[in-house]
Amino acid sequence: MKILSFIDSFSLGGAESVAVNLALGLTGHQHRVIHFSAANGIAADRDLVSRLESAGISCLDLPWNLLSNARSRREMLRYFEPDVVLCHWWGGAPWRDWVKAVARRPPGERPTFVCIIHHHGIPAPRGYDFYVPVTHTQVPQVSARPDSIHVIPNGVDLTRFSSTTPKLRHEMVVGRLSNMREVKIPGNWVRTLAGFHLPATRFTIAGSGEMLRTLKAEATRLGVAKKFSFPGRIAPGDVPRLLSQFDVFCYATSSAVECCPLVLLESLAAGVPIVAEARGGIPEIVKHRRNGLLASSVAEIGDHLRTLRRNPHMLALLSEGARHSARRFSLDRQIRSYRVLLAEIERMRAESRERGIAEAS
Questions:
Q1: Which residues, other chains included, contact 55 with Cβ-Cβ below 8 Å and sequence gap of 6+?
Q2: Which phi-psi region, left, alpha or beta, contains residue 44 (left: φ > 0; alpha: ψ -120 to 50)?
Q3: Are 62 and 36 in contact (CB under 8 A)?
Q4: pLDDT band per the 50, 70, 90 thresholds, residue 278
Q5: pLDDT of residue 71
Q6: N or C: less crowded end of the chain, CB within 10 Å?
Q7: Torsion angle, CA of 261/256/288/170, rounded to 10 degrees?
Q8: Domain 158-329: what homologous superfamily?
Q9: Residue 185 burial (C-beta neighbours within 10 Å; 0-12, 13-18, 19+)
């Protein structure tokens, strides 16, 4: 089948990595990826684009208006008329006019539209043939037939991560990796961590974005700059090395509610226990006292970190549990689930074409 993937923009992030992994992992099909980064004023990440282009997959940055009418859509799809369109949805959908325009046509005579839901909390758009929430907590966002909903968690390549269990160093290293947008990381995160008063502990806050300068300045102002490091943007290939330096992955957001963050799955694969707030889809990843510790508040995050600082045996057990639980989120498992969905789509399209032939005769 020919598979077209749509995504709003192509900066370095979880949804973009999922789009790339699916295009590269669903072998046996033809792929094209279209994004609208320039229209959003965002620079496309060259690492992600290069991964696709190295595999011979076209990755195009196009203006939205090409999807607004039938003529421009035909021009765009002249050499690649898809059977399946994977729409990576964050809340906006520049492709919505196309979905509406062909919705009344039989499935065998138009593309099959799949909405992959990367946003938590707001209702998913209507009119798609299938919906893929990445966590069970997103299912209530979908108003559609239950048999059109396939919950498929994100996945990571477990082979990229070391199989050795990390040892607690003299200093405990508490780290995080995320986009430094205001919605992702609390503006008082440095003050919060410093206020936990953890002995013999250092903090790494990795990632790039608008809040990085603010957080660095806060560390200096509070006189704790020696306890904090800010390595900036981490290329995907360097994530395993970074995580190998952590004893604990500590995660909290400001207003963003996470679904199935790839970085938490990577932390499990690296054998790094997670301490996080029990929000959104995180409790489907972090199992309390098995691969990490869940908190109901930021204050409880501090309690959990103090517990792990005092109890290296618990930290070692959680590390072992993290690596074991990562198997639930392997990239192979994710790809197999999408192959099941594609097989269902192929059957549906074939049956629709057969009905059309029978009716015509």
A1: 23, 24
A2: beta
A3: yes
A4: very high
A5: 85
A6: C
A7: 80
A8: Glycogen Phosphorylase B; (3.40.50.2000)
A9: buried
Question: 127: how many CB neighbours lie within 10 A of its CB?
Answer: 14
Residues with Cβ within 8 Å of residue 149, at least 6 apart in sequence:
130, 131, 132, 133, 139, 142
If you write DSSP's letter for every residue of 89-130 in order, what string do you get? Answer: ESS--TTHHHHHHHTTS-GGGSPEEEEEE---SSPPPS--SE
119 burial via Cβ count (<10 Å: 0-12, 13-18, 19+): middle
Q: Which two tokens stand for residue 5?
A: 């993937």
Contact 3, 29 (CB under 8 A): yes
pLDDT, residue 164, reads: 62
Mean pLDDT of the region 17-40: 95
Is domain 2-155+331-360 annotated with CATH 3.40.50.2000?
A: yes
List, in sequence order, every residue forming a beta bridge with 133; answer none if it has no partner: 117
Amino acid at 154: N
- Where do you find CATH 3.40.50.2000 in the chain? 2-155+331-360, 158-329
Contacts of 307 (CB under 8 A, 6+ apart): 293, 314
